Amino acid sequence: MFKITFLGTGTSQGIPVIGSDHPVSFSKDIKDKRLRSSILVQYNDIAFNIDCGPDFRQQMLKTNCKKLDAIVFTHEHADHTSGIDDTRPFFFKQGKIPIYLHERVYNSLKERFAYIFDPAKKYPGSPEFEVNLINKDSKFQIKDLTIIPIESKHLKLPVLGFRINDFAYLTDVKTIEKDELEKIKNLDVLVINALRFEPHPSHLNVDEAIEIINQINPKMTYFTHISHNMGFHEKVCDKLPANVTLAYDGLKLELD
Hints:
CATH architecture: 4-Layer Sandwich
Oligomer: single chain
Order of helices and strands: EEEHEHHEHHEEEEEHEHEHEE
Number of strands: 14
Number of domains: 1
Radius of gyration: 17 Å
CATH superfamily: Ribonuclease Z/Hydroxyacylglutathione hydrolase-like
């Protein structure tokens, strides 16, 4: 049995959006308040994040999580990586934190966070990491949990999603090749991005996400990385197929 907690389900701007006059930004429904997309995976004594965005501190305080065994990164964009400095309390408590990421993502972090990753520029008190490079072909372990990467394209940028047992998490997907789709068949739960109903150049919209769902036929699907342009949570859920719904911040799933 393992548990998934949705730390954030919003797109890069979050919801509400700064300066927005869109009605969803003024919603009183807590399910319409979305931090940047990330999940916490807990299994026996293991706890790790997929992605570490700018809301990381706030998200982890909400979970009351006492440890962080690893961070697994999907890609280098700021809404998925820029909370990395806020891992310091875990580093101070437990030492180097293992991170799993593509070499391209690691190179981006080294450039943007030189005071963390460049020994010549290392700032005292910044966190330290045990770096593990991965790609779409490198199945890996976090303790006794096996994780299978799945590659998709975010416009032209390769992004990694991840399968854990019969659960898969894919975000910032626009296209995915047939051989990668084979990795996510026979799922109990799929989490995949669906930005809005209208088409978008680098993200799936609802119809495109449902097309993928119909190809792989998971038992249940949760949409994440949601824009305010999607609409109000409850109204959108009413429009979706019976086995598809919107995730929301704080949602917890317990899986075999």
